[in-house]
Amino acid sequence: MSNTGYPDWETFMATSFAGRREFPLVAPETPSFMSRPVARTPDDLEGADVVIIGAPYVAAEDGKYAGVAMEEWIEAPKRVRQQSARYPGGYIQDFDLELFDHITMVDYGDADIPPDVMENQTPERILAAQEAVEAKCRDALRAGAVPVVIGQNSPCGSFAIAKACAEHTEGAVGCVSLDTHWDAQPLDYLTGDPRIAGAASWKHKMYEFLDNMHPRNLVEIGERGMLETSDTVRRYLDDGARFISSWELRTGLGIEGCVRELDRAWDGTRGVYAHFDMDVMGGAGPAPGDILGELVEPIAMTDYEVIRIAHEIGRRGLTGFSFICIPPGSAAVYRVIVYIIVYLAAGLALRKLGRGA
Questions:
Q1: Is there a domain that residue 1 lies in?
Q2: Measured in whole angstroms, how far is the alpha carbon of residue 294 from the centre of its chain?
């Protein structure tokens, strides 16, 4: 049993629906996502539509991130896969859709992140960890698939995927980003190194380093409150970004209006990178916000809202997708991540069937 109460593997298998079935493993105690085939080499990605990749990396100081133990954060890729094993197949009753009749999904395991980076986060080690994720994403993109990276911190769960998508795309790349924080500071606070796209700086670095990405094709959703400076927010607004705060979402725009605004990321672009920082839920989902430590803020988005937005992104088509800050320790929250990925893939399936946005 973890410090947050998440069950160990033996308890999980004894009490979960997953204990009723068999599934392939990508690593010890780690089922493949939704029991999909495991891809070990780039050749195994041939014909895939969606490639699942784990990025177990945390930007920890003194063994903690945002006041929560590093060990709890870093288990997210494994625990999300464990929770996905509860589901016997890909039938989604909401859409009367057999997902895996139309979408080929494989699990490409975790990126080969150097294990010592967690104890000694020098810029060189962080860049090596970032490159490990980029390499997996490049393999997926070359195969014509959408990489979906289950990460926990930047740059490995954000900038690495944006960079791979931007370098793969001939033309402009839009972005849909859900977050509580803009992550738009000019310098990484952990290392002070201008090469590092860190937890509070990755979005700034995305637009600094990637020439075919511009804020005019950014749809930023979910920030609220008083943590940001006016200079940070207004800079993006002046550059043409569409910012939908949680307040606007709840007081007039609504989820349907928010969905319509997503089109700005596709307007004039040749690809779209989507990124969900899951502190955007902040307690409005199936678990209390306190499990996020310092990252929680009021007026959070709900689990339905983030799942719905993921589905609508899939219906429009995308280049790559990533997660960070998955609230640690809650089985129910890990299931939300499963739903986000599956409903995103359902959007891709409906697009194939001519039922896209």
A1: no
A2: 20
Peptide bond before residue 155 is cis, with ω within 30 degrees of 0? yes
Q: Are strands 213-221 and 242-244 parallel, antiparallel or unpaired?
A: parallel
User: CA-based diameter of the chain, in Å?
Assistant: 55
Instruction: Give the Cα-Cα-Cα angle 330, 286, 273 (nearest 5 degrees).
Output: 85
- The average pLDDT across 177-201 equals 96
User: Tell me, what CATH number does 218's domain have?
Assistant: 3.40.800.10
| 162 vs 190: which has the higher pLDDT | 162
Q: Which residues of 46-68 are buried (b: 16+ CB within 10 A; e: fewer)?
A: eebbbbbbbbbbbbbeeebbbeb
In a domain, 2, yes or no: no
The residue behind tokens 């977050």 is 179
Is 4 domain-assigned?
no
Inter-CA distances, 321 with 46, 187, 211, 251, 317, Å: 19, 24, 19, 28, 11
Residue with tokens 């995305």: 206
pLDDT at 258 over 90: yes
pLDDT over 70 (residue 4) = no
